[in-house]
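Notes from the 1:1 (GR / supervisor)

We went over the backlog. Supervisor wanted to see one worked example end to end before approving the batch request, so GR pasted a single chain during the call. The sequence is below; no edits were made to it. Supervisor asked that the structure be written out right there so they could see what the output format looks like.
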Amino acid sequence: MTSPSEEIKLRFATAIEFALSKAYPNSGIDKQQILNSISTPKREFGDISSSIAIRLSKIAKRSPKEVSAAIVAGIPKSGIIKDINEANGYINASFNEVEYSKMVFEAVNSLKERYGSSDIGRGEKVIVEYPSINPNKPCVVSHLRNALIGDSISNILGFCSYEVEREDYIDNLGLQMAETLWGWKNLSDKPDKKFDQWLGEQYVIVNKRLEAGGEEIKGQVHSILRTIENTDTEESKELREIAERCIKAQRETLFRYGIYHDVLIWESDIVRARLLEKALEIGFKKGVFERPSEGKYAGCVVVKLEKIAKFAKELEGSREDSKVIIRSNGAATYIAKDFAFHLWKFGLLDSEFYYREFMGQPNGRALFTTAPDGKPMGFGNVKKAVNVIAVQQSYEQRIIKVLFSLIGREDIADSLVHLSYGMVNLEGITLSTRKGTWMGKDRDYTADVLLEEAVSKALDATERSGKLSDGSKAGSVSEAIGIAAIRFEFLRMSPKKPMVFSWDSALSFEGNSGPYCLYSHTRAGKVLRKGGYVGSSVGSGAYEKVSRGDDFELVKAIGSAGEAVEEAAYEYSPGVIADYIIRLTTTFNRFYESMQVLNSDAKEFRMGLIHAYMITLSNMLALLGIRTVDEM
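Structure output shown during the call:
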C-alpha cells in the first residue's frame, strides 16, 4: 500500500516527467531518477521539491534555472499539488492542504492499527535470529540490546508484510557449558535465587578457580567436554535439563520486556541431525573445501582464501592462505557450524528437526523447541535470514556469505543479512559474563535489575503526580513507562554504534525519551475525552478549516509514517522509527502549544487531527515494542 507522502511524491514525479518529456524529449531521465531527486524543502519554500533540473542542466548544457523554469512551465495543473515554482534550479511546490488532509485522514481511519504498514515484503518468509544468550547466565544489558533490536526488527518486517519467524539459537555445547556442568556437580546444585542469575554466578566462580591455576579442574572440565559432545550420554541429558531450566528463567525476563519467539534451535539437536556432515558433503562436492594431507593445515578441512578473495576484497593480503573450517582434532569452527545452520535455514539440507512445545508465552502463542522426542513442523526454509550478532563477528559472517557464493548460491548470499550491533559497555569496563564484570558493587548489570529500577522510578513519579484516576493501575502504568524508557533509549541509537551504558540515560524520563512520547499520547487523549470525541469521521466541510500553520505541519508528519517504516525495514534500523517518533511528537507539541482546539471554529478538524496523531504514534511505538497508556 502506498502512504500519503509516497502517493503525492509519485504524482509530483509524474507531473515533472510529463513536462520534462515535452521540454527535453531526449533527456534520458526516467521517473525513478525524478523520484530520487525529490526531498522536503525548508518550510518557506513549500512542501515538496525536486533537484532534477540541476542534474539535467549538465545534459542539456543549460543553466539549472533555465531548465527548471522550462519544466515548471509545462507541468499540468493538479488538484492536490499547487503553487509550483522555480528557485535556484529547484522545482518547488505546495500541497493543497484541504485535499492532502483528506488523503491522510482517510488513510489513517481506514487502516487504523495497520496505518503506516507496507506491502514490500509480499508475504516472503524471513527468519530473524536473536538474542542467543548462552543458557548458563542471566540476560545482561549487552544481551538486552541484541534482544530489543531483534524484536523490533521482527515487528518492523512483519508490519511490512513479511512472514517473520522469530528464532533463538541455543548454544548448549562447548567449553563454557562443560564448565557449567562441572560447577553444578562440584559447587552446589541448590539454587537460592532466580535460576539464571544463580547459574551465572556459579559460572563466574568456576572461571576464577580456573584462572587461579586449577589444572586438575581444567582436566575434569575437558573430560566433561568430551562426554557431552555425545548427545546421548547421561551428562549431556543432565546438562540439557540445566540449560532448559536456565532458558525458562531467561524467558521470565524477556517476557516482561515483551520479547517473544516462535522456536528455539539447540546446537545439540543440530549435531544430532548431522547438519554439519551434510554441509561438508556439499562443500567438498562443489570444490569449496579441501583437506590438506601435509603442512600447517594437515588433517584440517579448509577453504583457500584465494577462492574467497574475489568475493571479499577485505581478505586480500591476509597473512594466511587458508581459512580453517574443521580443525585437525575434528572440532568444528564457528564458521562450519553457522554455514551448516544456514544451509538448513534456506532449505538446502534434507535434514529435518523434530519439535515439541517448550512453554506458553504471555502473548498467547506457544514457544516451540527442537527436541529428539518431538515431531516435524514447518520451521525454516526461508527466503531471507537476518542475524542480530555483535559487530565482532562481522568477519565470520562475511565468510558465511562468501561460502554461499562459492557453492553457486549468490542469491542466498544476498539474502543473508548480518545485522551487526556495537557492544554495550560500562564506562571504562567491558561487560563479560565469564569474568563477572556484570556483577556490580551496588547492583548487577542485568536486564532484571534495570527494569526493576526503571519501574520503581516510574512508580515514584506516578504516585507523586497524583494524576491517575484509579490508583490500582499505578503498577501496570509504571511497568509500561519503565519499559518505554529502556526500549526507546536502547533502540533510538543506530545498531552499529557502540553503546556506553549509563543508568541515568537508560532511566531518563525527560526530553526525547520513551516516557515523554507516552506522555504526548496521553496528553492528546485527554484533549479528545474533554472534547467528547468519539472517533467519528470528519465532515467534508471541516477540512476547510485547516491552515498553513502547525496543524498542516502535523498532517504532513502523519502522512510520512509509511516512508519511515519502509526506510527502517530496508536499513534494518529501529532507530529510524525512533527518529520519526521524535519528529512526530515534536510537531504535535508545537501544534498543541500554538493552536486552540476545543475553543476554535476548527474544533472538528483539529480533534480529527489529534485522533489521527494518536493512531500513528501508537502504531510507531508498537514497532519499538512500546505500548501506550491512557493515563500517566
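Supervisor's comment: The radius of gyration is 29 Å.
Batch request approved.
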